Amino acid sequence: MFDVKEIKKDFPVLQQEINGKPVAYLDSAASSQVPLQVVDAMSQYYATSHSNVHRGVHTLGERATSAYENAREKVARFVNAPLPQNIVFTRGTTEAINLVAYAYGLHKLQEGDGIIVTLVEHHSNLVPWQQIAKLKGAKLYMVELTEEGHLDMEQYQAFLKQGNIKIVAVTQASNVLGTITPVKEIIQAAHAVGAVVVVDAAQSAPHLKIDVQDLDADFLAVSGHKMLGPTGIGFLYGKGKLLDAMEPFQLGGSMIGLVDYYESNWAEVPARFEAGTPNIVGAVGLAAAVDYLTDLGMDNVRKHEEELLAYAWNRLAKVEGVEMYGPREPRTGLIAFNLDDTHPHDVSTVLDAEGVAVRAGHHCAQPLHKWLKAAATNRASFYIYNDEQDIDRLVSALQKVKEMFGYVTR
Ligand code: PMP
């Protein structure tokens, strides 16, 4: 059903040798690889249809506009948004969340209001809220974790009872622990007190079927480059009535209705939030990535990752000195770990020499690392083109690290 060998053929980057070894790419949580279908769609666009969008009345302008707007429709269908107008193209998750923070938070919040975030947030869904809270004199509440590493839902409920919570910003999947959070329950509880919810779906959209209407999410942010698309493109989903009532985030061309000497008014949504020339080819690439994932079927993607995760978890658990972080379930296909007290940068350097690519560092989640009492971790993350061999390569490369740093003598 899920033929990784066939899938790998679409990814020439994975067919090369790195440091004389075939590459085992286990860093898709940072950026996934891009299939030929996406590369081809982008080069086809440049070869046949490129121009600026929404303005020219010439044929190439119309082709570019329809490629861009078709991409919006595909993305809308992918997350089950009611209309394409619910989708605002952005540079990625970071820009999408900043858009909400500045175009919604800055205008709606008042002194003494509350914003709830969680301890597992990527800095992208934390720092903008810290800043908005500071600018508006609002209070930031951070939901911490239970001993097992799940969000402390009792603490969340207690924060909601403060009576002044206006925004809840939560990730659907942690980029360090992989933990899938109970977003639907979080949204229901937030709505019961009149708060809006911003969902960071950077680590969930590539791996899980997302239905914004079923979740009843107010805003949801996604990056294209973690779901087989190019860098520099992502999107914000927003409920129509919220987006319609929002002031623009960036100002300039394409987002205006009428500009007079001393004042201007704004275009309709989503143009209002897409100032300047957009990343047209990026949107075309993202649409091709959505097609690729849709053809595979998101349920199949999830199943494949669950199988790989189970295999990797069992294998890593048997490597003496490996500490894996976070609860086993529910999680996406990634594992953050440390090996004895070898620094993650040393571990990943040795792994790289073996052709195994993992990420090392705090993964833009310093508060979570503080809670884990680890300055840094290694993170191995899996996607559609990974198989058990990649995990085996990781495990044998870890044995090399142990030999090199003196934990194993021969
Ligand atoms: N949130 C999460 C959970 C992430 O993993 C990332 C990417 N590491 C981001 C936000 C930021 O995404 P981007 O850099 O594409 O804006």
What is this structure, in a nutshell?
The protein is an alpha/beta fold.
- DSSP strand tally: 17
* Shape category: globular
Structural class based on helices, strands and sheet pairing: alpha/beta
Strand content: 15-25%
Largest sheet: 7 strands, mixed
The overall pLDDT average reads: 96
Continuous helix count = 14
Distance between the termini: 43 Å
The small-molecule ligands in this entry are: 4'-deoxy-4'-aminopyridoxal-5'-phosphate
Question: Quick one: CATH class of the largest domain?
Answer: Alpha Beta
The total domain count is 2
Runs with pLDDT <50, length 5+? none
**Percent helix range:** 25-40%
- Name the CATH superfamily assignment of the largest domain: Type I PLP-dependent aspartate aminotransferase-like (Major domain)
What name is given to the CATH topology of the largest domain? Aspartate Aminotransferase, domain 2
**Rg over C-alpha atoms, rounded to the nearest angstrom:** 22 Å
Strand order of the largest sheet: 4-10-9-8-7-5-6
Q: At CATH's second level, what is the architecture of the largest domain?
A: 3-Layer(aba) Sandwich
Q: How would you characterize this protein structure?
A:
The protein is of the alpha/beta class. 40% of the residues lie in helices and 17% in strands. The protein has 14 helices and 17 strands. The strands form five sheets. The chain has a seven-stranded mixed sheet with strand order 4-10-9-8-7-5-6, sandwiched between helices. It has a four-stranded antiparallel sheet with strand order 13-14-17-16, covered by helices on one side. The longest helix has 20 residues. 49% of the residues are buried. The mean pLDDT is 96. 4'-deoxy-4'-aminopyridoxal-5'-phosphate binds next to α4. Its EC number is 2.8.1.7. Keywords: Pyridoxal phosphate, Transferase.
